[in-house]
């Protein structure tokens, strides 16, 4: 049976591994509140979302300043991991990878507050941003409707919802992220990423209509 305790332990194990392997420069404490597993923000008074549009530089700054992430990676990218658990099952999740908007020095990321590093780049090279898209895997069965799959991938636009086979456990999410965006790290840590990607998070959720359009499927 899936519980908040078991999911929180999976997330802690992942974050500890990333930190010990020096893939993450900083990790936040895993938070368990009621049915939700998420992170302890360093400044929870700062709003997480101020709009439902596409992520902006100011969104990244706000998340960096408030500590609204599970892990800060060596290159300034953020991982945001949130699960909802009900009746022994994963009832929802938001699994996001937010690339850093600038190409930053990994040593500075490890030594200085990330908000200071980003603001330095904004001041010295404001137009030299990297146009990488945030990636988000959502599971929201309560909002499922035509054009809004229960499990979906959002990339490049808030209106993009590519149907996915099923909800994701954290191991499959991180395997996807590192396999596609950090292939050298993924190969170097294949025993960890490969073994953690095999567990299923729940039953398949693809509808017949979703199967007839491009979608993400895994066995």
Task: Summarize the topology.
Blueprint: H1 4-20, E1 24-27, E2 30-33, E3 36-39, H2 57-66, E4 71-73, E5 78-86, E6 89-98, H3 106-111, H4 114-124, E7 135-139, E8 151-155, E9 162-163, H5 170-181, H6 183-188, H7 190-196, H8 208-211
Antiparallel strand pairs: 1-4, 2-3, 3-5, 4-5, 5-6, 6-7, 7-8, 8-9
Give a quick summary of the entry.
This protein has 219 residues and is α+β, with helices and mostly antiparallel strands. It has helices spanning 4-20, 57-66, 106-111, 114-124, 170-181, 183-188, 190-196, 208-211; strands at 24-27, 30-33, 36-39, 71-73, 78-86, 89-98, 135-139, 151-155, 162-163.
Question: Would you give an account of this structure?
Answer:
With 219 residues, the protein is of the alpha+beta class. It has one domain (4-211). Helices cover 33% and strands 21% of the residues. It contains eight helices and nine strands. It has helices spanning 4-20, 57-66, 106-111, 114-124, 170-181, 183-188, 190-196, 208-211; strands spanning 24-27, 30-33, 36-39, 71-73, 78-86, 89-98, 135-139, 151-155, 162-163. Strands 1, 2, 3, 4, 5, 6, 7, 8 and 9 form a nine-stranded antiparallel beta sheet that branches. Helix 5 packs across helix 7 (190-196). 33% of the residues are buried. The mean pLDDT is 93.
């Amino acid at each position: 049976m899936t519980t908040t305790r078991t999911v929180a332990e999976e997330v802690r194990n992942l974050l500890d591994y990333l930190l010990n392997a020096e893939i993450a420069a900083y990790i936040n404490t895993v938070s368990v509140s009621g049915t939700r597993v998420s992170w302890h923000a360093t400044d929870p008074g700062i709003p997480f979302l101020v709009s439902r549009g596409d992520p902006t530089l100011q969104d990244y700054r706000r998340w960096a300043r408030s500590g609204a992430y599970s892990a800060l990676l060596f290159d300034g990218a953020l991982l945001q991991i949130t699960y909802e658990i009900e009746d022994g099952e994963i009832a929802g999740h938001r699994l996001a990878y937010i690339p850093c908007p600038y190409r930053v020095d990994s040593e500075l990321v490890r030594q200085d507050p990330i908000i200071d590093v980003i603001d330095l780049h904004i001041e010295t090279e404001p137009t030299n941003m990297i146009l990488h898209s945030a990636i988000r895997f959502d599971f929201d069965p309560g909002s499922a409707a035509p054009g809004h799959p229960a499990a979906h991938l959002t990339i490049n636009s808030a209106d993009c919802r590519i149907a996915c086979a099923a909800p994701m456990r954290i191991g499959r999410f991180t395997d996807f992220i590192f396999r596609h965006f950090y292939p050298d790290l993924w190969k170097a840590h294949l025993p960890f990423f490969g073994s953690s990607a095999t567990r299923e998070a729940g039953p398949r959720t693809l509808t017949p209509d979703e199967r007839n359009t491009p979608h993400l499927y895994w066995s």
